[in-house]
Specification:
- The chain is an alpha+beta fold and 139 residues long.
- It has one domain: Roll (Thiol Ester Dehydrase, Chain A), CATH 3.10.129.
- The chain contains 3 helices and 5 strands, in the order αβαββββα.
- The chain has a 5-stranded antiparallel beta sheet.
- The two termini are 20 Å apart.
Length: 139
């Protein structure tokens, strides 16, 4: 994923992330696996702020995760994660992310979420939620 539009759009939803010592690999860069946690944090903050959907009420799973790394992030950098809804289907939607460190895009990512019924099978996203997600994707 090479779309940097989230980082360039000042209206995009963003959260600050504190890089911790435990996030680092032996080269003193944020470990690649930690980026998924950064995206997860941004996603949960975004969904609560835009859909009033707290983590305890999630009825979806992450079906896909892609992260492209553009440059290393170190502990002394100011880091934020920009996130937005990029597309909405019947039972799934896609979110796009940009991890920004000291003003530069360090990584971009994408997740696909799938709404589930009580049996754990894909089911259509509730209409009110789908409508709001579509509005967010078009913003």
């Amino acid at each position: 994923m090479t779309d940097h539009s989230l980082e360039e759009d000042p209206s995009a939803f963003a959260v600050d992330v504190q890089v911790r010592y435990r996030d680092l690999d032996p080269f003193e860069h944020v470990n690649n696996a930690v980026y998924a946690s950064y995206l997860e944090y941004a996603r949960s903050e975004y969904l609560e702020a835009t859909l009033d959907l707290p983590v305890a009420d999630y009825e979806f799973v992450i079906a896909g995760l892609v992260i492209d790394f553009h440059r290393p992030v170190t502990i002394d950098q100011s880091v934020s994660v920009h996130v937005g809804t990029s597309s909405v289907g019947t039972s799934s939607w896609t979110m796009a992310y940009a991890v920004v460190a000291d003003g530069d895009v360090a990584a971009t990512g994408e997740t696909t979420q799938v709404w589930l019924d009580d049996d754990g099978d894909p089911t259509p996203i509730p209409e009110a939620t789908a409508r709001r997600l579509r509005d967010l994707a078009e913003a």
